[in-house]
Structures are given as structure tokens and as C-alpha cells.
Amino acid sequence: MAIDKVVLLVGGVGGAKLAYGLKELLPPEKLTIIVNTADDFWLYGLRICPDLDTITYTLGERVNKKMGWGIANDTQQMLGALAELGEDTWFRLGDIDLATHLLRTKMLRDGATLTEVTERIRDALDVQHEILPMSNDPVATVVETAEHGRLDFQDYFVRYRWQPQVQALHYTGADEAKIPPRVREALSAADAIIVGPSNPWLSIAPILSLPGMRNCIKERDVPRVAVSPIVDGTAIKGPTAKIMHELGVPQRAQSVADYYGDLINAFAYDEQDAPLTVDGLRTQPFQTVMRSDRDKMVLAERLVRWIETLVD
Amino acid sequence: MAIDKVVLLVGGVGGAKLAYGLKELLPPEKLTIIVNTADDFWLYGLRICPDLDTITYTLGERVNKKMGWGIANDTQQMLGALAELGEDTWFRLGDIDLATHLLRTKMLRDGATLTEVTERIRDALDVQHEILPMSNDPVATVVETAEHGRLDFQDYFVRYRWQPQVQALHYTGADEAKIPPRVREALSAADAIIVGPSNPWLSIAPILSLPGMRNCIKERDVPRVAVSPIVDGTAIKGPTAKIMHELGVPQRAQSVADYYGDLINAFAYDEQDAPLTVDGLRTQPFQTVMRSDRDKMVLAERLVRWIETLVD
Fold first, then answer.
1. What is the pTM of this model?
2. Please, is B221 exposed, middle or buried when counting C-beta atoms within 10 Å of its C-beta (0-12, 13-18, 19+)?
């Protein structure tokens, strides 16, 4: 059966690849992307939303493809000047990228919601597919580390390049954060919900930590598919496998399925892994490694075709 | 008699030229520059201090000499991106210049005073001469205009390019603003106080509007010299003559002397003007038009030599 509305849950770079593939496959009215905002932070008085920007820039064909984030051919004049002023410029801010942060900060200070800001920016960048922040309320991932104690997420991820050993993760503010109406609507209208190949603990868990979010998803009697970010026991990019090890979770795709539990009813894993069967889950191997835009489109298409068979 | 300590009061571009000449003439311990901050404003969550930056960039040999403000060879990548996001980019912000605003905003939000911020920035830019904001408390020039009613200063000055007709000027916040200790100290220790060739109504009046400031200056029994910004009935640059006309003040150098009144006891005017005598004032013609760095140094040197004769 053809699928009319897909909702994708993602974090940043890894999820953006699948988002790109789905955007090429599906018209705007058939795809809504819900994005983690627990990496968001304040820097020099600017509100930075790394995952929202990565998704928006990727869909808007502006992203620096080599990095997977930031703007292609951006300059760093401001950052160089800031270093000359004696600042520790550990977080890369391109000059073009800065415009996004300045506009967002201005709009937020003027009372706009992050949902409204995100829509304004994607409209301006000609991104037609809907991108929704998971919440308009601040949620912040805090990483408890062996070496440095509690670290704000960007300190852990960027400043220390995810090298500290993770002991625990907290999503501060989540208890009071609300699910925006459009996110609820998109989930209730979805014919399929896809959890992108993002880091389950760093990118997806904050979304699921919002009160009511797990239920909004679980109660939907539609394919609820997670795509494994673990391939052959390791992660394509970033700290997923490392964190699993540190949290005492076996570094294999099945651990991701186990982690999501009854949130999902189907699981897509990589064809390099051994055949995977999990009670209560439909499973299917795919080539999940996306090196080229073609890889992204092929995975998106195969995934959607498979999901269609699940509702037949 | 040789002069040991000079204090210069200035606004932006015009005053920066004399500041540059004096900086070339006098060692750092002999010159303190007190700068108008009533043009300061918030833009995109950033605290912008146009006059402080113009003075700092000029003394640090970074200024865009063609404009008289901003950074030489700066780029406008951020501003171009902001325009693409649909914003009205009426205020020019260079990419390198942005670093100053970001650092300042961060420091202010972290509790630093504007005096501390200004010192940090000039240190980083190797400016040795002391630059002091007139106050650490916010004062904002508001321009009452015939066409648009009350305008914030930058709206009047930059957005509308000082074309609206000025009916009155207000320096909001001045009543509660305090004179920083270093400004008081510099004025009490000065052997000469020079009011730069800045716009008396827009740049110098806000400084004088601080409670106690006129007295801090007047009570000093030292040369207190204003340099006329009016040459041959007009202004070298900017709206000084236009504002005089709109406020019903005759457009000539003597009106500037009259405006300052007993604040000053000496007055330097341009040699193109008719010989000027004002009761109670020592007056002297100079070549006040500063087109080259050499002009600035020559005026600074002649001015200081003349001031030395006043205390003989």
C-alpha cells in the first residue's frame, strides 16, 4: 500500500543523509522531519541549533558536504578576528552560517517560537519539506563524564571531540518541555514513522524524553521503523559505538533495536551485519551506508518500498 | 609650559581624526579619550558601540579610511546571507567587525562593564592609549523628527541617512547614568581638556548630559578647548550644519562656542573662517580640515603647542 505521510525523527549529520534521500523521493506534503534540539546552546549571545541547521542546510543544498554540517564555501573571517581578540574559538562559526544564528536569536528575543524561526529560515532557503524542532522549550543534553564531570553537550562533543568517557546522559528541561502542536499533528497523521540512523542516546533519546512523546509514537498502528546507525559493530561517523561501549551496551545493531524497545515495530539494519531476528520486530537488511547522494536516494526508496509492504 | 595629561572628548569619525593625530603626538600615559556611547544600540542581540569602535579601530590602524569607520578590507558575507534570509540589512556589519560585537556582547552578558570590554578590545588590537566610554550605564540619543516622530539614533543616522528634520534631541537614561571612576580621575588629572571636532548636539551633548559631567570639566582650572566642527559655515562631513539649521542655530563656528558656553575657556576654529572673538574665550584659527594622516598630526601638534601657551 502506498504511503501518504512519512515522519522522520533525526539528529544531525547521519540523520540528514536519510532526510536528504527521503526529500528527493517524496513531495513536500508527504514528509515531515522532527529534529532533536537538545544540542542547542548559547554562544556569544547567539542561539545555535546545530541539528536544525544541518537538516535545513542539507535539504537546501547548502551544506558543506565534506563536513556534513555548516555551509559550503563559507568563510571564517569573524572567527579569525575573534581568535585575534584572544578568544578560544573552539566552535566553528562560518560567516554565512552566522546570519542564521543572528536571525534566529533576534526572532526568539522578539517572541517567536523555534518552530516559527525554523520555518522562516527554511522558507528563505527554499526548503519545501517541513522541518520541526522537537520542542519550543529548551532541553539540553548534559553528559556525565569520567574526566570532566558534567559537561554541556557542545563541550563534550565539539570542544573535547567526544573523547571523554560517558558515564550517564541527562536531558535537562525535558520534564517541563512540551511537544509542539504541529509535531503532535504530524505524528497522528503519519502512515509511517522512521527513526533515522542518528545516535540513539545523543540524538533520538532527547526527542523521546519529552513527556508523552513515546506514547504519541507507540500508539500509532503504523510501521514504526528505526534505521540502525551501527554497521558491522561500529558507527559510520561519530561516537555512537564508543558511547555504547561506555554505557555497557554490546556494540551491535540489535542493541539499538533493544534500546528502542516497543517504540518500534520494524528495524532496518545494514547488509554487512549478520541476519537479525528480534521478537516482535519486522527486520530487513539494507545498504545503510550513504556515501553519495545516490546512496541516500537508493536507501530512502528501498526503505519506503519495504515499509509499504509492511502495511499491505 | 609642557602639558602632561590631555583628555579628549569625542564622538565618532570626526573626533577620531583628531584622536589619531594626538595619539601620534603623545605617549599613551599623556592621552585619555572619553567617547560618546549614546549612539550604542542592540542589533540582532549584539551590543554595537559605533563611536567606541571607530576610535579603537582608528587608533589601532584597522579602520576603513575611506569610510572613516568599520574595518579596512572587511567582508560582508554574513550581511549578504542575512539579506538572503529576507532581512533588511540597513546597518552595515562587516564579518571581522562582528567579532568585536560578539565578544563585547558576551562580556557584557557575563557581567563586565563597558569600560572593561573596551579595554580588552583595545589591548587585543594593540591600542596603547586609553579609550573610555563616557558611562557604563545605557544612554540613548533619541531624535524627534518632523517626518517620523521619535527615532532611535541609528534609525535617524543610518537607516534614514540623517535626512529627517530634527525638532529636538533627548538623551534617554542620562539622568540615571553614572560617570565611571576612571573618567572622573582622568578629568581631575588633566592638564588640558579638548572637546573634539565632533557634532556638539549628537556626539558631545550626550557626554555633557551625564549628571555632574559639566561640573567635572568646568571646575578644572586648565585649558578647556573646543575644536570647531564647522568650517566656513558648513560641516566637513555629517549632519552638524544641517542640525544647526533645523534647531534654529546660526550655521557658523561661533554658535558652537556659544553652545558650549562656560564649559570651555578656549576655542579653536578653522582658518577659512573670519577672525573670531568671543568674550571670555581665547580663540585661535587652525587648519582644522584633516584629509590626510599628516593633517591630523599637524593639527594635533599645533593645537597642543597653542594650549601650552595658554598655561604659560
1. 0.91
2. exposed
| A153-201 pLDDT per residue, tens | 989 988 898 999 999 999 999 999 999 999 999 999 999 999 999 999 9
Domain membership of residue A167 (yes or no) is no
Give the dihedral of Cα atoms B41, B44, B47, B52; nearest 10 deg.
Answer: -70
Which residue positions in chain A have pLDDT lower than 70? Answer: 1, 312
* Overall number of domains in chain A: 1
**Residues near A66 by beta carbon (within 8 Å), at least 6 away in sequence:** none
Q: Is A275 on the interface with B (CB under 8 A)?
A: no
Residue B221, domain member (yes or no) = yes
Record the cell numbers describing residue B275, joined without a space: 577672525
Interface of A with B in 42-61 (CB under 8 A): 44-46
pLDDT digits (tens, 9 = 90+) for B145-202: 999 999 999 899 888 989 999 999 999 999 999 999 999 999 999 999 999 999 999 9
Residue B164, in any domain of the structure: no
Tell me, what's the pLDDT at B239? 86
- DSSP-based helix, strand, coil % in chain A, nearest 5: 40, 20, 40
Pairwise CB contact (< 8 Å): B124 & A86? yes
Instruction: Tell me which residue range forms the domain holding B279.
Output: 6-144+172-310
* Domain CATH for A18: 3.40.50.10680
Within-domain flag for A152: no
What pLDDT does residue A271 have? 95
A98 with B80: Cβ contact below 8 A: no
**Mind telling me how many Å the CA of A259 is from chain B's nearest CA?**
40
Alpha-carbon distance A276 to A284, whole Å?
Answer: 8
A112 and chain B: CB distance < 8 Å anywhere? no
Interval B267-298: pLDDT, tens: 999 999 999 999 999 999 999 999 999 999 99
